[in-house]
Amino acid sequence: MSAKETPAISQLFDLLESRYALRVLWALRDEHAQTFRLLQDSVGGITPNTLNTRIKELREAGLLDHGPSGYLVTDSGKDLLKRLSDVQAFAAKWAANRAKKK
């Protein structure tokens, strides 16, 4: 990994490691706009204060935007979610393997 890539990945991980950040993005993966309340329900368990903070951070990072119908992922957010889509397949396999071991 080059010296330029190290700070970039660290910055992205810092953002995504924030509590509920990935869940907020994941809730918008179908590309349908969601109002604040709907997004809060979609994420589940997130307080309005925390959701406001995550929205602000994700908007500043250029991954989320607000349109007339509600919150949506930006093109950069869509690109990130596309790259994370393999995580869903991995999670299903991982959970099945764990269930077999029990």
From TrEMBL:
Domain HTH hxlR-type residues, every copy: 15-96
Annotated Pfam families: HxlR
Keywords in alphabetical order: DNA-binding, Transcription, Transcription regulation
Domain of life: Bacteria
Protein name: Helix-turn-helix domain-containing protein
Organism: Curvibacter microcysteis
